[in-house]
Amino acid sequence: MALPMRNNMKHFPRFIQKLNSPVRLLCAGLRPENKEAPRSGRVFSGIQPTGVPHLGNYLGALENWVSLQDQYPSVLYSIVDLHSITQPQDPTQLKSNILDMAASLLACGINPEKAILFQQSQVSEHAELSWILGCLTSMPRLRHLPQWKMKSKVKNEGSVGLYTYPVLQAADILLYKSTHVPVGEDQVQHLELAQDLARIFNNRYGELFPEPCALLSSTRKVKSLRDASAKMSKSDPQTMATISVTDTPDDIALKIRRAVTDFTSEVTFDPETRPGVSNLVNIHAAVSMISVQEAVSQARGLDTGAYKKLVSEAVIQRLTPIREEIERLVSDRAYVERVLAQGTCRARELAAPVLAEVRQRVGFC
To answer: Residue 90, exposed/middle/buried by CB under 10 A (0-12, 13-18, 19+)?
Structure first.
């Protein structure tokens, strides 16, 4: 969830693919410029409070979130601070990061009149449903999920919270009877767990939860500017590798100018043999809302040095209004806190009756 949209897929309204038995539900997401009549269902997604998003977050997920507000009648976006403490957090910094992320989401175009924006930890039903679903989940099922395998491998250990992280993700989704979840391809296995748990709960206690469908966007993954084999990340130790949505025009121009490319001057799109240049083409196409082919066409006659200037100008034009709005919102913390508080109330109104029904079915009351 909170995570980047990946890979080109044909724009079918609903895409169902058999991965294994039972059937897994996947839906192709829509590019932001596509306008369709609102659909039925409820969208849920979450993002960790890492402070201000970077360009990859914006193009890979948040831009799609904004589009989904106009495509579905019910949309919830959560700042998932419970997930964030699976890694050590400084309490003061975490609180600041939550507000910074909320301000960033609003600046990127999340409209609290169209979508419910709230802080996960303030809706206690998430944690209680996670416990109940955890009691329906086997340890081997969790052991093979990517979140645990990737992060526990780094330190050769991991917390219980990290291990059960996907169960909390499932609870986040099912608590609102969500039907659609925008995810990146690396999160599809976690969504499959939510589908499985919906099925297991329904089989044991009676039909209650819909099986959520994955919304996969056509936006390609944005790579590091210093290593195009890795995705753009805020945790990258190389400061030149990542563009923040609050970077100044000078910072953006410097980072793109120093982006790793190759010794061929012509601009072409070939991710396998020219990953650095292809990453710039992807970025150019995404921020300009044009196709990769059109981006390459605009680069005709330019060497990579001149093309970097063109890409810089496109990125600056796209991010400057967002940066200015974030600066305005960060200076008005009371407003941001009020938006989150109102979102929490609306989220709880949806969550409370669902958890009450779960408690009754399980036998707690």
So the answer is: exposed
Confidence of residue 25 (pLDDT cuts 50, 70, 90): low
Token pair of 296 as six digits: 């390459």
Please report how many Cα atoms fall inside a 13 Å half-sphere around the Cα of residue 35, on the Cβ side. Answer: 0
> Tokens for 170?
């499932």
Note the pLDDT of residue 148.
61
Whether 231 is catalytic is yes
234 assigned to active site: yes
- pLDDT tens-digit profile of 277-328? 999 999 999 999 999 999 999 999 999 999 999 999 999 999 999 999 999 9
Which tens digit of pLDDT belongs to each residue from 105-121? 999 999 999 999 999 99
Q: Name the active-site residue from 177, 231, 255, 308.
A: 231
Q: Which of 151, 155, 223, 309 is catalytic?
A: 151
- One DSSP character per residue, 93-108 reads HHHHHHHHHHHHHHHH
Q: Annotated catalytic, 177?
A: no
